[in-house]
């Protein structure tokens, strides 16, 4: 069956009182070049387009949109003819050369079903009413519902020639599409007359949700109903958690606690000892996950090793890292991201005494287009002092580094300098910055200096779980732009590069703030905030 077929009524279908089969499509299209964002659109006019940051999120949203409509819509109608009956459909091709015998090669058969067809490349999903034979002949088609047949399974047959057509019963519930196919009148069949007052209308019982939690099916007749609904919902929540891109241990612990309570109540109702044992295991799992969450966020008890071993292990180191970033932002002598990055790395090496060592290998590892020129400009403005010519720094080897001095960081006679760090603290801060700037994926993608500055700025301002901001509320893009020495409008492009390098997950820019979280891979480089920054 062709993916782009439209529903056209056949002559035999119209003569037999049949109604057009419904067709409804959800599409996934790219937003534009140079962007990973995608657009999810629905052929139903009432559904608005959605924009998602990546194709994986778009496919998830598209399938969820399709499932929501299938749950809300009416089932297949036995009086509908195949919606795939159109030019280009291999099962309903027109007779070649007018030979009517060629049309008999394929005849629709079986009950009307509601089938879903998906593109193998994950670009579109289509639901349509068709006969069982056409659904079976369509590659990749999945039948989700079948129409109820009249008279013990007999499908309604077309009326004989000359007989008055029987009006079809109208569909109940929302339609897959409000767009009528070409050649079909907008007016539908007449509504049946209302029931007389002598025949009360019986309320149709609502179908119960079919659920499964763990390896157990939730019985449909389990009472109380609130317990059954809780078990069904918990099963759906656990399956939804497995589809998350990043782990959320606090959420998982809450789910295990709810599961323990629900299984305990279930065991009390049916008197099953195995259910009580499962409830105990769920309670133990909740405690274990809680402990893992404390380890990961640095809130572990005495004697417990933290789950995330951070490069900077203490709150004092985290605060000093942010202090260096702010100092370099305010006192950098030259404009531009490359000069800002060079000043930051040199300041960390000379933070304690105002003096440090530098080699040509160090400069080669930083994304600088003209390191000799930048060093010369820093020396000319008086911020940097090196013995001899700055060109000798490039030739220096690790066994014979070049000593340099930053006069503004040298401690004065009245007290320490602006960065009064201990020897071990200075080494840890310099090593942390070097690990971020030289991180493997940032280096392989040859990201620019401003991207690596943004990586440093984001790593220094997260919550214990890696979400940006003290409580995951995000960071102001204006402050990030000032730290990276770029315009605020350029931050979006830098964020896209970090997301492509697997640094950021769920990044979003809205209202002048950047929200998201560091990925699990780079969480050891983070410096959690204990309170929102000033």
UniProtKB/TrEMBL annotation:
It comes from the Bacteria. It comes from Streptomyces solincola. Residues 1-21, 180-207 are annotated as: Disordered. This is Uncharacterized protein. Residues 180-190 have a biased composition (Low complexity).
């Amino acid at each position: 069956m062709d993916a782009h077929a439209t529903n056209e009524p056949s002559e035999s279908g119209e003569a037999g009182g049949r109604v057009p089969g419904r067709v409804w499509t959800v599409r996934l299209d790219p937003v534009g070049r140079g962007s990973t964002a995608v657009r999810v659109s629905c052929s139903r006019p009432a559904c608005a387009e959605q924009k998602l940051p990546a194709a994986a999120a778009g496919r998830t949203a598209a399938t969820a949109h399709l499932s929501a409509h299938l749950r809300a819509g009416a089932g297949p109608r036995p009086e509908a003819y195949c919606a795939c009956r159109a030019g280009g459909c291999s099962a309903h091709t027109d007779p070649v050369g007018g030979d009517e015998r060629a049309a008999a090669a394929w005849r629709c058969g079986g009950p009307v079903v509601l089938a879903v067809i998906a593109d193998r490349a994950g670009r579109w999903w289509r639901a349509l009413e068709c006969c069982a034979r056409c659904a079976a002949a369509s590659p990749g088609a999945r039948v989700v519902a079948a129409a109820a047949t009249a008279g013990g399974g007999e499908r309604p047959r077309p009326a004989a020639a000359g007989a008055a057509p029987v009006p079809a019963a109208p569909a109940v519930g929302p339609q897959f599409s409000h767009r009528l196919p070409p050649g079909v009148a907008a007016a539908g069949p007449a509504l049946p007359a209302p029931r007389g007052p002598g025949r009360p209308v019986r309320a149709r019982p609502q179908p119960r949700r079919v659920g499964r939690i763990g390896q157990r099916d939730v019985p449909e007749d389990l009472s109380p109903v609130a317990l059954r609904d809780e078990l069904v919902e918990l099963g759906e929540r656990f399956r939804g958690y497995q589809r998350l891109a990043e782990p959320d241990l606090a959420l998982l612990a809450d789910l295990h606690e709810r599961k323990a309570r629900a299984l305990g109540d279930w065991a009390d109702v049916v008197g099953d000892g195995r259910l009580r044992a499962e409830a105990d295991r769920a309670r133990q799992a909740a405690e274990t996950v809680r402990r893992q969450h404390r380890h990961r966020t640095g809130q572990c008890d005495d004697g417990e090793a933290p789950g995330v071993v951070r490069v900077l292990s203490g709150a004092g180191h985290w605060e000093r890292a942010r202090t260096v970033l702010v100092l370099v932002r305010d006192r950098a002598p030259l404009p531009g991201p490359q000069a800002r990055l060079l000043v930051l790395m040199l300041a960390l090496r000379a933070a304690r005494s105002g003096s440090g060592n530098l080699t040509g290998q160090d400069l080669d590892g930083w994304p600088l287009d003209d390191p000799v020129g930048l060093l010369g400009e820093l020396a000319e403005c008086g911020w940097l002092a090196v013995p001899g010519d700055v060109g000798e720094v490039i030739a220096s080897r690790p066994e014979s580094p070049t000593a340099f001095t930053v006069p503004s960081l040298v401690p004065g006679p009245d007290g320490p300098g602006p960065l009064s760090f201990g020897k071990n603290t200075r080494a840890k801060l310099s090593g942390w910055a070097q690990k971020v700037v030289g991180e493997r994926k940032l280096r392989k993608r040859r990201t620019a200096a401003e991207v690596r500055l943004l990586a440093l700025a984001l790593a220094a301002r997260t919550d214990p779980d890696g979400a940006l901001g003290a409580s995951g509320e995000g960071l102001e893009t204006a402050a990030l732009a000032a730290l990276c020495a770029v315009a605020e409008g350029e931050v979006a492009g830098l964020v896209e590069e970090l997301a492509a390098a697997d640094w950021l997950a769920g990044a979003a820019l809205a209202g002048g703030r950047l929200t998201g979280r560091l990925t699990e891979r780079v969480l050891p480089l983070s410096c959690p905030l204990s309170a929102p920054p000033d």
